[in-house]
Each structure stands twice: as C-alpha cells, then as structure tokens.
Amino acid sequence: MSGRPAPRSRRETRAVVLETLLRRGGAFRPHIARDAQLTEASVSRILAELRKEEIVDEIRQPAPYAGGPTALITLSNNIYVAGIELSNNRLSFSIGDVSGTIDYVERVPVSPQLDQAEFERIFTGCLATMGKWTAKRGVSVRQAAFSLPGYSNANTNPIFPWDMERLRSFLSDTMQGVPLSITNSVIAQAAFHRYSGNSSYPATGDHLFLFVGHGVAGVIVNESATIEAFSPFELGHMVLERNGLACRCGHHGCLEAYTSLRAISKIVGVSETEILQRGDRFLDQLELKAETREQLRERLFLLGLGTGNALNLHPLPSVVISGWPSLLAPEDRQAIIEGMNESLLGGFDAKRMQVSFIAPSIGTDPQAALNYAAYCFVRAGGLDTRAEERHVEENA
Amino acid sequence: MSGRPAPRSRRETRAVVLETLLRRGGAFRPHIARDAQLTEASVSRILAELRKEEIVDEIRQPAPYAGGPTALITLSNNIYVAGIELSNNRLSFSIGDVSGTIDYVERVPVSPQLDQAEFERIFTGCLATMGKWTAKRGVSVRQAAFSLPGYSNANTNPIFPWDMERLRSFLSDTMQGVPLSITNSVIAQAAFHRYSGNSSYPATGDHLFLFVGHGVAGVIVNESATIEAFSPFELGHMVLERNGLACRCGHHGCLEAYTSLRAISKIVGVSETEILQRGDRFLDQLELKAETREQLRERLFLLGLGTGNALNLHPLPSVVISGWPSLLAPEDRQAIIEGMNESLLGGFDAKRMQVSFIAPSIGTDPQAALNYAAYCFVRAGGLDTRAEERHVEENA
DNA sequence: GCACACTAATTACACAGTGTAAATATCAAG
DNA sequence: CTTGATATTTACACTGTGTAATTAGTGTGC
After folding, report:
1. How far does the CA of residue B304 sit from the closest CA of chain A (Å)?
2. Distance CA B209, CA B233 (A)
3. B396: which chain A residues are within 8 Å (Cβ-Cβ)?
4. Per-residue pLDDT for A275 more than 80?
5. List of E strands, B87-237
6. A312 chain-B contacts, CB cut-off 8 A
7. Which of A170, A285, B324, B342 has the most other CB atoms within 10 Å of its CB?
8. What average pLDDT does the segment A32-53 reach?
9. d(CA A312, nearest CA chain B) in Å
10. How many CB atoms lie within 10 A of CB A242?
C-alpha cells in the first residue's frame, strides 16, 4: 500500500465511504478504511464531516473483540429519498429512507400502451399527492429516482416509444428542485440486489443479470464498478428466427416474441393480467401438462440461445436469471443450458459458466427505484447535486 | 470553469497531455490546456517536466496569428516502441516511434491453426532477431504491444483457443523487462484509426467498428473514453440460423460461417490464401457474376441482421465497417442495411443510424499494434510501468 | 524602428485532499 | 488499576492544482 494511488475529490471520497455504509448497512471504521482504500485518519476526518451534517449516525457498540472498534457507523435514518417506478402495468411512487424502508407508497394502474401525455398527467397527480404527504410530515426528499423499462441514454426506448428528451425535460420541470435520476428498471433491480441487504443473491463477481418478464432485459453487473457504469443489455429484440413469430416491435423472430410473459401466457392458458394478479408464484398454482412443459422448454431453449449469443459478444462468467423461468422446475430450466450450449462459444461448460436463478420480484415495485435513489444520494456524496452540475468542457 | 473538478495524479495528468500530443501529432500549449482541462500554468509545469525527460520536443514556430503561441510541442521522435501482431496468417514484429513510423519489421507466416507451443517457439526467435536490431543501434524499446484476434481478459479466445494464462506468463517472461500490453486486434485497429493521423475516418462520435475478415470482430468505440475502456464485441459466433451452416467453432449457423473470408472465398471461387496474397483489392479484380453477387448480398444481409442484434443489445448511433464488404459496390452493400432493418429495433432509419465503410487494411500489420504500443506508452504518462504495478486491494 | 495591443509562458503563493506518525482513547482480562 | 491490544484523533508534510501577478513574444500601424 505504498504510494499515493489516485487522488479523489472530497465528494468522491464521501461517496465511497457512504457507499460502503449503504452496502453493508453500517460498518466500523477499520472496515470502512479498507473498503474505501483510505487510512484511518482520512476516514476519521470524513466521518466527522458527515456526522456534523447528520448524514451518518454513530452507535456506541461494545467491541466484538479485545481492543476492537467502539462505534458502529450507520447512515442516518432521517434521510428521505423517493423511488418512482413505471412498469408495464402500473406507476408507483414511494418515499423511504436510504436503507430501503418504505414509508409511503402509491400505485396507479396504467396500460402497457400508456401514451406520453397521459403519463405526464398521472405523474403530476401522484407527485402532488406525495407532496402533500411530505408537507404534512415536514420531511424533505433529498433524492428521487425514476425507473422505467428499456430506458437508456439513447433516445429510443423499446418499451415506451416516447420522446426521451421531452420525458427528461418534463421530469426536471416537474420535480421542482428535488434531484432526480432516471434509469432503466433493470439497473434499479441491480441496485436493489446490491443494496437491499438481502445476501442470498447468487452471484458475487461480474455477471449478466437477466430479467424475463414483459420483455427480456439484462444488465451487465460489474461488481467492482459503480452502478452508473452498468450497461443495460436489451436482449428482447434479438432476432433468432428469421420469419419467426411476430413481435410487438414489428419484427419477426425476436426473443421476446417467444419468451415474454405475454407469449407464455398463451401457452399456459392464463391471461397476462391474471398472471400479474397472482404475482410471484403464478406457475406453482398451475398443473402444467407434459405438452405445455415441453413448449415452455422450447421457449427456454431460445432464451438460452439468445443469452449465449449475448455472452459471445460480451463474455462474462456468470448469469443470474430472474422472472418466470425461475418458477419452473430445475429439469425444465435445463433447456436454457441446452440453448446456451448451442451458441456459447466452446459450448456450455459448467466450469466456465455459472447459471443461477432468483425468485422474480413481481409486485415489489417501487422498491428497486427506492434503492436506486438511495444509491444516487450516496454517490453524490450526500451533497446537493444541483450545485455542481457544471463540468462542461469547451473544446475549440 | 469554476471549482476543482477531479484531482489527478501526476501520472494521469502526464497521460492526458501526452495523449493530446499523440492524437494531434503535436500541439500548442493553449490547445493542450483545453484538451487536457488544465490551466496554462499546469501545462507549463508538466511540459517542463516532460521536456527535461526528453519525452517531448519543443519546436520554435512562428505564431499562426497575432500574439499567438511560439512553440509547437511534439512527442520526441527518439522514443521507440514495438508492435507485434498475430493474425491468422502471420506473426509480425515491428519497432517504430510513437508517431507510428516503422523502422524495423519482420513477418513470419503462420498457420491459422497455429498451436501454442509452436507460437512460443516462433515468437522467441523473432524477439531475438529484434533484440539484435535494437542492440546494434543502441535503441531501447520503452513499450511493446501484442495484438491477437479474439483476445479478451476472459480466459477464452474464439480464434486461438489457447491457455491465456500461459500466454500472459510466457510473454511477461519472454519480454524481459520491456512493458508489454496484450490486446485484441480490433482494439489495436481502433488505436490505429485514432492515432494514425489519418483524418478520413468516417465516424466522429461513439460508434461500433466492425472488421469482417477471418472472423467478424467489433469494438465499441467510445470517443470520449480511453482505449482501455473500449469493449471488444465478438460478433462472429452469434447464432443466426439454428441448424445452419457449420462453423469452425463446432456450432451451426454462426455469422462467421456465412461472412468470413473463408466462407465467401467459396462463393467467389478464390482461395483464402490467394485472397490474402492479392490483398486489399482482391474483389476488384474479379468479375462477379450476378448470381455470385446475389449470394454475397445474402451473406451481407445476415451480417446486417447480426449487427442489428448487437446494436439492440448496446445501442449506438453509428457503425463503421471494414473488411471485404467495403470492397463491394454500394448497391450490394445495401443488403447490410436490409438486414439491419429486420433486426434493429424500430427498423433501420438513416436519421438514427449511420453506416459507413472504410477500406480494409489487409497487410498493414503490425502497424496497428505499433500505434497501440504508442498509446500505451502515453497512457502510462511516459513513466516506467513496471514500478507502480501495485494497486492491489486487500479486502477482509 | 518603436510603441501598441494582444496573447503566451512562467512563477510565487494558496488551498484541497491525503498519508505518516505521534498522541490519546477505549476495552477485556488479569 | 495495570497491561496489551487496537481504535481514533491530531499535527504536520507533501502532491497536484488553480489564481493572479509577471515576463516574454508577436504583428500592426505609425
């Protein structure tokens, strides 16, 4: 640990310290020092600053071993953030603390074909309601996050084909001062898995997280990077069968046309809305006929094929799959492996590629956006984002 | 330009200054200051340091306008770097200066099925020859780069299925102190386009660079990022036709099975080795029959389909294609657009997607690796890489 | 040929952010 | 209540930069 590796601005340093706290849900100084690559001295200074600003709390805690640390540092539970999620069937607003605890929530059903004007109307309404809630309690929201499926910085969205420029300016006007980050739902999900404190997440290193629901969305999770650096990986519209099934995007043979909830709802004979009502365990309640299972396996095979294709483009050692495939029996899910075996370079090899499944989180929205908002707050070092929005360059 | 944006280590600052010089092939102080986001004062200090170390030269030059700058700063032409390239038909060694001028070159034919032991034998031999050349002239190589197709940090390579761990340790042992970077050929190509001073490159912003040769390799070029941050995007083994043509990788229906030089050599009736001999313009010399052209268009359609799939995963506004497709008539190349139109979300739209072609650089190896080596030298701030290889973290 | 307007280039000084090392605090166990 | 072990704070030094004052070039117009 010799030299002086890479200097950081105070904001960055605060951000890494706070992120450690968010990730671990509290830590002792020595841990923070290691995680943040700082000396105890620096940690001490930073924490003194953060404590004065009431961003962190220090809980006196008997040392767990002789001569051990005496104070557990946690994020203050008086910091409120807002999470807003748009999914294919509803728009949800929430307020909670940075640990992800929800104090307020409102959910409004919307149509998957929701148009932009209607969205703006509903959004404005919900925001007003939320504003009343905060006003009554005198709480101030430090950071908000809005997640929607398919979002990217590019000006196109496969799910809601809106004018993203207009969306951004609508939101920044409407939020009136509260810093707002917009992100892809699947990235918010990744934030949820990283920060929710649920330690049962199956992958530890870099991996591809895939969510198979209305669409097929993925995100490249780089364990050692900040969440902003994650790239969404929209798998749903990879054409795998020329002249195959028609997809809502107008093309034929897209993966989504085979594996979306809508597509499989026809196979299992349950309407899409009913699936959403039954929530997480909708497949459990069904007695799947052998023929149905075979059809589902065929779909999973395609999912595997597409996933393998994606991993050929961008090699990663592990995939975590969430969504309806996680509800099937392991022997059925094996079809995904078979599909990957036919596209993944060198074939599927369990030594080089780990595939895991996690329960789909249907209906937990807007939990993920709330976690993402907490992340954004922390990333900004707990400082007001509005102030330093001026790193503009002026090339000749 | 108010506050103190993001502090940098001296090494980083030197790196950005040197990179500006590499990119522009020389610049005046005010330009450097703008590009590197530094004040004139800092530029002055850094340059004084670099001049003392004989890394940069200062050429007295009459100012181009009233009161203009007086000294043009360039990279010293006494810095030698080595570029080594392995392609599917030869291994080439070169030494040159950071501007990319080649002073020494040796090329040895190798087989596309070259095995790792044989490679090591040839490499050692060429390196010895190169060593004699440098010894005779008393030049010392400051940085070397080795590029090979399909390379990634992952331990697999679609082209040369070797043990990458062994390759890396072989190279670091063999190079005896000369810092060596290993990279994907397509990334070296990107370095070539960025630093060769050839300004006719068609894309200016972020784009996908695709090279269609023995394989189909791509790289996501992020104009505002360092080259290390570029991701290789191996398109060749995307399965587009289940039960399609057999590919050398053992799968069926890979893009490469349809569009590699080997695949089209069968269509045009010219052997692969002959194509390589004829070099860049091999297709010009052929009188393509209508039927042949139709077959090639079919192949290009698949290339477009796969490219569209890749761009759905990772949206970018522009694609630059190099390789044999660039040699065809524009009306034939239109098939690529047609393919993209069937996979790219929302269809192909010239307003949102720019497709350009550049002449393939067959036979210019190891120029690209040499440019990449220069880039690596500059990125390290012109400091010895060996010294500070110790940013290891030790998490509990 | 010389003052001028203008910009370039250098330098002294101040300040932010950190690490080092010394000083001080805390706890468990005897 | 001392000891051993680690935690925490603090004073000081060092790096890298920006600011602002200073010095140096250059072309124009007289």
Report:
1. 11
2. 9
3. 31, 34
4. no
5. 90-97, 102-109, 141-148, 180-184, 207-212, 216-221, 231-234
6. 158, 234, 237-238
7. B324
8. 93
9. 6
10. 16
Superfamily classification of domain A202-358: ATPase, nucleotide binding domain (3.30.420.40)
The number of beta carbons lying within 10 Å of the beta carbon of residue A370 is: 36
Contact list, B251 vs chain A (CB under 8 Å): 342-343, 345, 347
Contact B70, B52 (CB under 8 A): no
CA-based nearest residue to A152, from A234, A83, A236: A234
When CB atoms are compared, the residue of B8, B239, B352 closest to A309 is: B239
Residues of chain B with CATH 3.30.420.40: 80-189+365-379, 199-358
pLDDT, residue B2, reads 39
Closest CA to B234 of A144, A314, A379: A314
Q: In one letter, which amino acid is A63?
A: A
Which residues, 6+ apart, have CB-to-CB distance to A310 below 8 Å?
A: A208, A218, A233, A235, A238, B313
Q: Is the pLDDT of residue A390 over 50?
A: no
pLDDT at residue B395 is higher than 50:
no
Pick the CATH number of B10-75 from 1.10.10.10, 1.10.760.10, 3.10.20.30, 3.30.2170.10: 1.10.10.10
| pLDDT at site A113 | 87
> Within 7 Å: CB of A381 and strand C?
no
The nucleotide minimizing the C1' distance to residue A71's CA is: D7
Domain span(s) for CATH 3.30.420.40 in chain A: 80-189+365-379, 202-358
What's the gap in Å between the CA of A180 and the closest CA on chain B? 22
Judged by average pLDDT, the poorest of B74-83, B212-221, B385-394 is B385-394
| Tokens encoding A362 | 């249907």
Place of tokens 């280590």: B9
Chain-centre distance for alpha carbon A36: 23
Judged by C1' against the alpha carbon of A67, the nearest nucleotide is: D6
Burial A168-179 (b: 16+ CB within 10 A, else e): eebbeeebeebb
State how far the alpha carbon of B304 is from the alpha carbons of A322, B39, B330, B343, in Å.
Answer: 30, 46, 14, 8
A80-189+365-379: CATH, from 3.40.50.150, 3.60.40.10, 3.30.420.40, 1.20.120.10: 3.30.420.40
Question: Which residue ranges does chain B devote to CATH 1.10.10.10?
Answer: 10-75
Q: Å from A141 (CA) to C19 (C1')?
A: 37
Q: Where are the beta strands (DSSP E) in A174-258?
A: 180-184, 207-212, 216-221, 231-234
Mutual angle of helices A367-379 and A185-195, in 10-degree steps: 80
* pLDDT tens track for B165-208: 999 999 999 998 899 999 999 999 999 999 987 778 888 889 99
Q: Which of the nucleotides in strand D have any atom less than 7 Å away from a protein CB atom?
A: 4-11, 15-21, 25-28
Cα distances from A228 to residues A12, A36, B40, B163, in angstroms, run: 14, 18, 32, 33
Are residues B2 and A390, on separate chains, in Cβ contact within 8 Å? Answer: yes
Computed over every residue of chain A, the mean pLDDT equals: 89
Q: List residue ranges whose Cβ is under 7 angstroms from nucleic strand D.
A: A 4, 7, 28-30, 40-41, 44-45, 47-48, 63, 66-71; B 1-2, 4, 7-13, 37-42, 45-46, 60, 62-63, 66-68, 70
CA–CA distance, A10 with A142 (Å, rounded to integer)? 19
